[in-house]
Design goal:
This protein has five helices and eleven strands. The protein is of the alpha+beta class. The radius of gyration is 22 Å and the shape is elongated.
Length: 204
């Protein structure tokens, strides 16, 4: 498969609800960038739903969609986290966390019933979400002398680069996001600026 420099995620939190034989399943989807965020979100949801029985989760991270985790949170193995993740995979989304909060209704649903419930609650939450396509961007730190400011800013403007940090002094520092498809061309232009150092930091 050719490497794609775009990926799909959601723009903000969304919610979906599924009920089955008295049990209520609340699907909550969130855009995330790091695994740390998932822990903060889950602990907040736990405090908002003190009477709920289970908080089952799945998340997927990174533009190449390679990082994912599932948690059944006490439900039978494979009956909760995996169906949530499979629904995320079907929608081809990444940088996303889905938490399904279960209020137990007194009737056991069995593994097939649970799989269906967690899958449906997730699908409802994703259906309510706004999906956006983003580009995979490399972050570069540019260091240059103040005299080169106009040359550097012209390249940034011409290439529609987003500045995420800047410090201007005799020695200037600018951090920019460059879409991966553009990187080679942009770096070649920057290298023509005298006394400029461009260092790759990380990929978003």
């Amino acid at each position: 498969m050719l490497f794609s420099d775009t990926y799909k995620t959601i723009t903000g939190p969304s919610e979906g609800i599924f009920r089955d034989r008295g049990s209520k399943f609340i699907g909550l989807a969130y855009p995330i960038r790091t695994e740390e965020e998932t822990r903060e979100i889950v602990s907040r949801i736990r405090s908002e739903h003190p009477k709920a029985r289970h908080f089952c989760t799945a998340f997927r991270l990174t533009p190449d969609r390679s990082v994912f985790r599932v948690n059944d949170d006490g439900e039978p193995s494979g009956s909760a986290g995996k169906p949530i993740l499979n629904t995320i995979l079907s929608a081809d989304l990444t940088n996303i966390l889905v938490v399904v909060v279960r209020y137990f209704g007194g009737t056991l649903l069995g593994v097939p019933g649970l799989i269906n419930a967690y899958k449906t609650a997730t699908a409802e939450a994703l259906q309510a979400a706004t999906v956006v396509e983003k580009t995979v961007n490399d972050i570069y730190r540019l260091r240059f002398e103040y005299l080169q400011m106009n040359d550097v800013m012209k390249i940034i403007k011409d290439e529609h680069l987003q500045i995420i940090r800047q410090e201007f002094d005799n020695q200037c520092l600018v951090e920019v996001e460059i879409r991966q498809a553009q990187v080679n061309g942009v770096v070649a232009k920057l290298e023509k600026v005298p006394n400029l150092n461009a260092d790759y930091l990380f990929t978003l």
